Amino acid sequence: MPGIERDLGTVIGVSEVERAEYAFTQVERWLRSEPMVELLGMFADGDGGEMVGWLHLNEELPGWLDGLFQDAEGIDGPFQGAEGITAQGELLRHVLVVERAAAGAFNFRTPDGSSYRERSQAVSADFDDATRERIARLADELGLVEAREPRFRAYDKTLVLGGGYRSPLLRTKYAALLRERGTQLGEVSFLGSPRFLIEDAARPERPVAERYAPGATDEFGLMLGAARAELGLRASGIEFLCGCTSDSEPCPKWPYREAENADRTPAEFTHERRAPLTNETGEMVGSVLSACTSRPPYRPDTSDTLGLWARCAEPRAGQRVLLVTTQVFVPFQQFDALRRIYLPYGAEVETVGFGPEWGDRPQNAEYLLQETLSAIRSARRLLVAAAKVLAPGALGSTG
Q: What are the sequence ranges of the domains in the chain?
């Protein structure tokens, strides 16, 4: 992907500290790249300001980041060197500045900071044609448009990432195409969630889903249908990983049952499920997973599904993990994969997607900016996780 180093070969098997340092280099390559600087220059309205009202939904930052953002010279600890803030501390500060600016200019999904919309329900902006063309060019340079082939011919694990409407079907089709072209996928997992199908009157999801996943009521069902339709895989039953027998009541083992808004979270969002998959000969070849949410009362996100997969699969250093998605999501999902798989486990991760010619997602300026913001936010989360590895005692356990 343009702007993000795809070759992890020089760092596989190194210590967690070295992986954390590597995470900083990857974010810096992308966040300080020329296309990002140009894109931000079209919209950014300056530095500093209050750190309220611009984070995603009910997300919070560790307290030590607030001090770093507000006063770089005033922070103590491992990111404050003898002559001022360290390079890593400066990058932490920079990603917060960039995210705050982008949250004001690139957010077409939750522009008021409170109401929740899915990607398909985003609002539009009044851009002229020249601005739209420029945004499209810069988004392409940042890795959100044109697809790139996988680097290797063989992977130990392949993750087909979930989505809505036709996305699960198309991503599974793309995985099948990669296999036909000679890429060995290894064990294949389909990552879904209990997200309900969208009942938008203007564009309901169910009529689309019925074509390949008849009877599906959530994203987990869409992934089951896609695995069957494109790869001929069958589920050998559905199990609740939490030990429950149904999802009609909140799971008593849900880690966030005491969190704010837990009581407003749909019971379905609190459970974890798995459906083992078999091929035509009855051989076990993978599974479909459904994660619980870590952000009540909202549905699980990509990070939740990656975390569940990692706990189940226990990836290890030396393994190669391929993530299959839509190209517009590659930057943000690669950063998520670095945080949830590479950083803690050491497995090499690579995210690939199919291009706009597949017709999965809009290629308008609003959508491209929105997913650039998603990647910026994921980059910040990666840096926070990496910083805690580099200085766990100084930074504490919060965040």
A: 16-142+391-395, 157-359
Strand partners, 321: 157, 349
Q: Give the mean pLDDT per block of 10 residues along the chain (399 residues).
A: 52 80 96 96 60 61 65 49 66 89 82 52 76 97 96 98 97 98 97 95 93 97 98 95 95 96 97 97 95 96 98 95 98 98 97 96 92 96 92 52
DSSP string, 340-381: IIIHHH--EEEEEEE-GGG--S--SHHHHHHHHHHHHHHHHH
pTM, to two decimals: 0.89
Report CA Rg, the chain.
Answer: 21
Q: Which residue has the tokens 């979930």?
A: 162
| Residue-wise DSSP of 93-154 | HHHHHHHHHHHHHS-SSSTTSSS---GGG-------HHHHHHHHHHHHHTTSSS----S-SB
Identify how many contiguous H helices and E strands the chain contains and give both numbers.
13, 10
CB 304 within 8 Å of CB 254: no
